[in-house]
Design goal:
Length: about 100
């Protein structure tokens, strides 16, 4: 298939336009990927710093004697509740389902 002079006058400018559009589309894709990478890096950094901060707070809380006292009291209360539950006797039929039908 051969192109005539008049057809070339139309075809060549269209190829330049098509090339520009393809290049712009590639640039948009690259820009989108760059933005996504930047957002991901920012999120990773945020997670990393928040993890470090929470570990520091945990260490500070462990050093506080009030927390240790409170934990000790809670543990004692739990142990007392367990002893009370063990010492309770079950009623022979209350709370149990008996089917008396037929």
């Amino acid at each position: 298939m051969s192109l005539k002079g008049i057809e070339l006058q139309i075809a060549i400018p269209k190829t330049f336009d098509a090339g520009k559009q393809v290049e712009q589309a590639q640039q948009q894709v690259n820009a989108g990927q760059d933005l996504a990478n930047a957002a991901l890096n920012k999120q990773i950094e945020k997670n990393h710093t928040s993890l470090l901060e929470s570990e520091k707070l945990k260490e500070l809380r462990q050093d506080e004697p009030k927390d240790q006292e409170r934990e000790r009291k809670e543990k004692e209360e739990r142990e007392e509740n367990e002893k009370l539950n063990k010492n309770r006797t079950k009623h022979p039929y209350k709370g149990n389902f008996f089917d008396f039908s037929g």
